[in-house]
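Hey, I'm writing a tutorial for new members on how sequence and structure tokens pair up, and I'd like a real worked example in the thread rather than a made-up one. If someone can provide the structure for the chain below, I'll link this post from the tutorial.
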Amino acid sequence: MNSTTPLPLDGVTVVSLEQAVAAPFATRQLADLGARVIKIERPGGDFAREYDRAVKGQSAYFVWCNRGKESVVLDLKEEGDRALFERILATADVFVQNLAPGAAERLGLGADALRERYPRLIVCGISGYGEAGPYRDKKAFDLLVQCETGLVSLTGTPQTPARAGVSIADVAAAMYAYTGVLTALYERERTGLGNAFDVAMLDALGEWLGQPLYHDRYAAAPLSRSGARHPSIAPYGHYRADDGAEVFLCVQSDRDWVALCEKVLQRPELTRDPRFADNPLRHRNDAELTVILEQHFASATGDELIALLDAAGIANARLRSVGEFAEHPQLAARDRWRTFDSPAGPLDGLLPPVTVHGREARMGAVPALGEHTAAVRAEFGG
């Protein structure tokens, strides 16, 4: 790939008053596309810098969400720093913030005030629960929003609810903020004016709960927690092979069910078994079906079982750890790993998911706290 190829957001300046995950992950997407992202950190820095020390002494959360940015430490309650901030903002195309509820307004940085001062500015606010309503001022973090949306009630075993293993509420909000910024930039090209929009973590994750939300709103009974099995499709989950390997398979149609019975189980009579005549019946009788599958799979290793499923055209996967995913042969074959810099030295990271032929995302360095403060002060006369 040609690293000198212009990127779509070259020339776009983003100023972000951000912390934790949602806003930083959104603005990192913009940085990957070539935007200049000036991350304003309070004295002491983004508290996500202190979440852990997993990456050569650095926070895994911070490394993940903040590469390619400039870190500038300002105290916006101090007159000189506030004046400098306004001079920076006057040159910006986009302003993103996910401060505590009401904090931006108290600083005079609410959407209406900013749009009045800077008509071409695109203003994005990320909150937990939205700009109105009884939860407006309630603090929100990822797990808490997972709880409020009902996601935790869906995740885990029948006995024990569980948090989703990634910061999914933050990521959902980040991606809607990111696409919202891109939409507003496109709109500004036609109107010449900026825009303001808000993204609530509650709404973002609520959109991602679409299927269970519609199911529970209209079905006779709500979905129940099903561990690593699908709550409404069967067979769809994990099955143990002879060597102890956990193999996941998915049968989503009657055609797949016939192929599984005839080509893998060698039991075509099961296709006519009234217990398994369609997916609702297979799901209702999943315990009996699991016994049949695991009895047959006990004679094959994990690799042999996957080969059988592949030959029959049955969707499948092996259960990998995150460490095993990092060594995934598909990532290696497609050359998905790159190196980027950080205060602790070079780090490996995956390329962003959108692959554009002929160019690559700009995977810039993770900034040290305040690394760019002096240069930005000199640039903007601070």
